[in-house]
Amino acid sequence: MIRTRITELFGIEFPIIQAGMIWVSGWRLAAASAEAGAMGLIGAGSMTPDLLREHLRKMRKACPDKPWGVNLPLFFQYAEEMARILIEEKVRIVFTSGGSPKKFTPRFKDAGMKVVHVTATPELAVKCEEAGVDAVVVEGFEAGGHNGRDELTTMVLVPQAAVAVRIPVIAAGGIYDGRGMAAALALGAEGVQVGTRLAATVESSAHENFKRAMVEASPTGTFLVLKKLVPARVIVNEWTRRVLDAEARGAAEQELLELIGEKRTKLGMFDGDLSEGELQIGQAVGAVREILPAGDVIRWIARGCEETLARLSTLT
Question: What is the mean pLDDT of each run of 10 residues along the chain (316 residues)?
Fold first, then answer.
């Protein structure tokens, strides 16, 4: 059994956080993750306020005795309204991302909530600590979805963040199995956040076409695009190639915005258009070879971590 400040902070069995991914992390995935002993997160970033409230109530019914939370992107158009809903619905844990942790942290803390913020540099991890969060997720360049512009990899980022702050550090980006979890702990993290591997699960709300694309993706099948706007790591497809061509010739911001259009991520991840949709996923997708129940994945990661740590102990 691996016990850290993260397992104590949230009351979870394993120091594993299921990432709150857009179009993927609904209440079913969060509930399956929580029931398996991890921290399940509902991804609010692709929901309307009413839909979020519906998922919260279904989650509470499905997991009355397990800790769980919500990921709330602070740049989201509904962030203010959703923050009120989280407080009204008495959500106990919130992970914020994509903006300043100062925006809602005092309000959430006053409501008795535990707050974690996601960031991509050691300097910003310090600002998160100063803002009063309980823990920080430091996410490396390998991660899927929206990324930091500094391109710090997980291996470089985690140990620097771990010595920069006193609060617990959760490592994210490219972690998909027990070996990666053990490595993160060795680097100074006290937990890991897993996205890509849990996006490719039975309970994920990703479209079956997108799940198939994950299974078929190669280790070099993703690319970071749109660095002029909001960097995102995606599976390369026809739409991605048009974006990359536009970026290579120095396209203006307006042209890039027109290429993105509206609901491009929904088109790919939820509606299943593998050609024209934006398929946000991390570099670890190259290791995904089958769609499994989320609980099986979490237990496999935890068991693999314990086995790796035990093997390493024999080397001394």
Answer: 96 98 98 98 97 98 96 95 98 96 97 98 98 98 90 97 98 98 98 98 98 97 88 95 93 89 92 97 97 98 98 92
Residues 170, 175: Cα–Cα separation, whole Å:
11
Distance in angstroms (rounded) separating the CA atoms of residues 106 and 228: 31
Say how far apart CA 40 and CA 25 lie, in whole Å.
9
How many helices (H) and strands (E) would you count in the chain? 14, 11
d(CA 229, CA 276): 19
Domain spans of the chain? 5-205+290-313, 208-284
Contact indicator for 194, 301 with CB cutoff of 8 Å: yes
- Is 5-205+290-313 a domain of CATH 3.40.50.300? no
Nearest Cα to Cα of residue 54 among 45, 42, 66:
42
